[in-house]
Amino acid sequence: MAEFLQFFFSGLTVGAVYALVALGFTLIYNASDVINFAQGEFVMLGGLSTVFLAMAGIPLPLAALLAVLLTIAVGIALYYLAIEPARGASAVSLIMITIGASIFLRGTAQVVFDKRFHSLPPLFGSDPIRWGGAAILPQSLVVLAGAAIIVVLLWLFIDRTLLGKAVIATAANRLAAWLVGINTRQIVGLSFAVSAGIGAIAGILVTPITLTSYDVGTLLALKGFAAAMLGGIGSALGAVVGGLVLGMLEAFSAGYVSSKYKDAVAFLIILIVLFAIPNGLFGRGKVERV
Amino acid sequence: MSILAAERLSIAFGGIRAIDQVSLRIQPGVVFSIIGPNGAGKTTLFNLFSGLYRPQEGRIIFDGEDVTGLAPHQLARRGLSRTFQNLQIFYRMTAIENVMVGCHRHERTNVVADLLHLPSVARQNRRTRLAAQSALAQVGLQSDTDRLASALPYGALKRLEIARALASEPKVLLLDEPAAGCNPVETKELEGVIRSIVKAGVTVVLVEHDMRLVMNVSDHIHVLANGRSLAEGTVAEVRRNPRVIEAYLGTHDAPEGQDTEEAARALG
Amino acid sequence: MREPASHRLALLGALAVVIVLMPLIFPSAYYYRVGALVFIFALAAVGLNLLMGFAGQVSLGHAGFLGIGGYAMAIGPVHLGVPPWASLLAGAVISAVVAFIVGRPILRLKGHYLAVATLGLGVLIAIVLTNEASWTGGPDGMSVPRLVLFDWAVRGSQQWYWISAATFLVGAILAFNVIDSPTGRALRAIHDSEVAASVLGVDVARGKLAIFVISAVYASVAGSYLALINGHVTPDIAGFLRSIELAAMVVLGGMGSILGSLVGAAVLVVLPQTLTILHDYEHLVLGLILMGVMIFLRQGIVPSLAAAVSGRQT
């Protein structure tokens, strides 16, 4: 039982990160039909920038804030410099652009920062909390709480503000939204900015547990994408559920089956979802007209 | 013995019955037209015939064989071909290459032979190119043989699709709104093309909005409205059918005779 | 963009001449190795180009087949006592079988779903290669015994230059053959309109599967050569980055251009070599190239040049 709880919590924690990455994917995909592989790099940038800014002497909270702003700026730049000029390109071209961007960001991080693993001090110390025989890091709870807060804030924004409505409109039908006067370019740019911010915050929160380095982004992006697919690409609820489920599946399979193949779980899920339930758990399909 | 028949064909999308219990029989060697107001289900019916949709109820009989549920390429190999309302041209290929693909079902090489470019492949390429050239000539596009399809004007592309469909030497050719977007001159040329196709022994099933073309070229007309069969008969019979007139024009309060005359004129 | 038949023959001839004459200007033996690597990757790129550029599909996991071919050259001789030439064939057959089995369900997907599915496949292969250490030597890989044909042990970059150049030429000829054939026309039709192709009698599913298998075999042979020339194979031969590099070669050179695949491979092989001093900048540059090409030079190098020369708009 203690073991089960242990896996449950570690699965939940890493699942929360996947959920946030998946949420970022979903936001951007809904607003622009782009699958943004650089999503994982946002997480990496959040954590790693905070580390290096703090190393440069800036107090940690400020470093974190600056890191988030920096990542948001990168997200916006990604949209306006790489995605927007290619508007009208095929889905595959756009994926390759974002893959190129993620490789570029990774390569830049390699040069600007370094290739080592780095950590950040946890928010509430590193003494694990004992519960039911399992040892839970306080930072895990921080990650979970942070993720929950972000999801709620995002939901409030989408549901309760005018700008949020504009985002929904753009997601539903970009042309129509544009015709009624919504500045769709800015909306898409906003979605990139918000996704980048969410990713950065996730990175900062989880670094005390998982450490960070210049190349954590790739695997995170792929897993976040698997989570989004599982939940149904285009569904925000699906993204969150998918992320948590993926995290749990990983933790349990690593614990009970084989820890070597932990990373394979996400890819198996991708393939299974695409073959068996292409629309995921909560997604809706599109009809092709001849 | 009909060459193509539908028996109580039905298909629904979401809650909408796009085709509802439609039955018809098409005799070989005629021009059989399917007309009806927008949304009547004409293209859906074509999609059912050509295997792109699978009917939920009913059967399709082609040349004596129950072909319900067969895939498009299987139907093509039995001699059914079609053109598309929204042009499905191979834009990255030249005009003649487009038509050469039409010959696919008659080509006799396999992947390995193609990889090795055995002599049989060169011979097949030559035969296919000749057949394609003759199909292009049939629709009057011989001067555009090696031009990239994306460079051709709309009217030429419509004819190109017909040439491509003809290259497969079909028994039945489904033409989906071939005159859409064509000017009167082009439509008149199209009439000639259709007649020559029929003279060569191909059965033509036509979906069209251009009533003049339909009335001039059809041997038999089937009228659809809201996914259901409304009327059927010769050109003269259908023109005067009050239910057909009503489906196209609606009704208004005027002496019945006057209505029918106006409508008959409007229907060409 | 494709080259017509007469041009193709001339092109191949010119290529053969260049291949033969190039060593005359090589400053050192090292360049033979670079040349060999270019032809090896160009071979894989040609196969992928048939899939992506002509048939209009996408595979972001093609390095998985490089991995199968590469590890066959290690596992065969070392663990199973199979001579290298037979291992090469076995690797190709295994790749073909894997492509055949996985291809049918995977190729039903389109667009970004297909891209991600193939990506997942490639990464899974890489993970298996990394984890099954008893067979594959784990993350550090395995050493690969030399290729011995009859009594001749293939050794040295010079010999590999000629072997891989010749193999590439054969691969290019086969590719040109396919393009100018009923199969090739059917594939290009599938690319432009699957619906129209099927209505004309093309078995779309079978066509896509056939070209997927063929492109897998190309990659497998290239992977085998890669393992042989290096004398060593590690799991990142099958990794995500390698798959992206392959796709980048195809896109950079020009989708649908066989010559373009050679050019793309040349750029992406030679560039890191020139950047060895700035080795750390390799990824940065690769990312920039990828983005730049997809945004500004979407046709790829060779078709863009060809269009510029002929004055035609693409």
Q: Between the first and last Cα atoms of chain B, what is the distance in angstroms? A: 31 Å
Number of E-type strands of chain B:
10
Largest sheet of chain A: 2 strands, antiparallel
Cα-to-Cα separation, first versus last residue of chain A: 55 Å
Strand tally of chain A: 2
Task: Give the oligomeric state.
Answer: heterotrimer
Report on this structure.
The complex is a heterotrimer of chains A (290), B (268) and C (314). Chain A is mainly α and 290 residues long. In chain A, 73% of the residues lie in helices and 2% in strands. In chain A, a hairpin with a 2-residue loop joins strand 1 (129-131) and strand 2. The longest helix of chain A is centred in the first third of the chain and has 31 residues, at 2-32. In chain A, 53% of the residues are buried. The model of chain A has no long low-confidence stretch (mean pLDDT 85). Chain B has 268 residues and is of the alpha/beta class. Chain B is 41% helix and 22% strand. Chain B is built from eleven helices and ten strands. Chain B has helices at residues 42-49, 72-77, 95-102, 111-116, 119-138, 154-167, 184-199, 211-217, 235-240, 242-249, 256-266, and strands at residues 4-13, 16-26, 31-35, 57-62, 65-66, 80-82, 172-176, 203-207, 220-225, 228-233. In chain B, strand 9 and strand 10 (228-233) form a beta hairpin. In chain B, helix 3 crosses helix 5 (119-138), helix 3 packs parallel to helix 6 and helix 5 (119-138) crosses helix 6 (154-167). Chain B is globular and about 60 Å long. The two termini of chain B are 31 Å apart. The model of chain B has no long low-confidence stretch (mean pLDDT 88). With 314 residues, chain C is mostly helical. In chain C, the strands form two sheets. Chain C has a two-stranded antiparallel sheet. In chain C, strands 2-3 form a two-stranded antiparallel sheet. In chain C, strand 2 and strand 3 (152-153) form a beta hairpin. In chain C, helix 3 (63-80) crosses helix 10. The model of chain C has no long low-confidence stretch (mean pLDDT 88). Chains in contact: A-B, A-C, B-C. The interface between A and C is large, with 42 and 42 residues.
